[in-house]
UniProtKB/TrEMBL annotation:
Species classification: Eukaryota, Metazoa, Chordata, Craniata, Vertebrata
Gene: VAMP4
InterPro entries per UniProt: Synaptobrevin-like, V_SNARE_CC, VAMP4
Name of this protein: Vesicle-associated membrane protein 4
Organism: Carlito syrichta
GO cellular component: cell surface; phagocytic vesicle; presynaptic endosome membrane; SNARE complex; trans-Golgi network
Residue ranges of every copy of the V-SNARE coiled-coil homology domain listed in the record: 52-112
Length: 141
């Protein structure tokens, strides 16, 4: 049968386990790097080492500021690209609509030209017919 575990731990159980784990981690065989991360920096608060840390921290802060500015610029650039893409899609749609409308108008104008030519030909035919009839009537009499 599997062992039963406590479902609810009180604060003493948790605190005791954390302290014992920390004590086990900080035994004599641990190196300086582990001690630094578990205990924090040790040594004098002022001096050349602290100045180096401040200098490095300032550099890190500057890099963070530059990166935040870069991220802001990239986001703004992305927004501008989205707007540009929307405008280009709109322009493409308008160009397609213009092309279709121009083809339709060209066909209408061609038919209108054909109608005008047909009316002119009909008028010329009627005029020619009237002239021929007048000439024929003049010679008959």
């Amino acid at each position: 049968m599997p062992p039963k575990f406590k479902r609810h731990l009180n604060d003493d159980d948790v605190t005791g386990s954390v302290k014992s784990e920390r004590r086990n981690l900080l035994e004599d065989d641990s190196d300086e790097e582990e001690d630094f991360f578990l205990r924090g920096p040790s040594g004098p608060r002022f001096g050349p080492r602290n100045d180096k840390i401040k200098h490095v921290q300032n550099q890190v802060d500057e890099v963070i500021d530059v990166m935040q500015e870069n991220i802001t610029k990239v986001i703004e650039r992305g927004e501008r690209l989205d707007e540009l893409q929307d405008k280009s899609e709109s322009l493409s749609d308008n160009a397609t609509a213009f092309s279709n409308r121009s083809k339709q108008l060209r066909r209408q104008m061609w038919w209108r030209g054909c109608q005008i030519k047909a009316v002119m030909a009909l008028a010329a035919g009627i005029l020619l017919l009237v002239i021929i009839i007048l000439i024929v009537m003049k010679y008959r009499t």
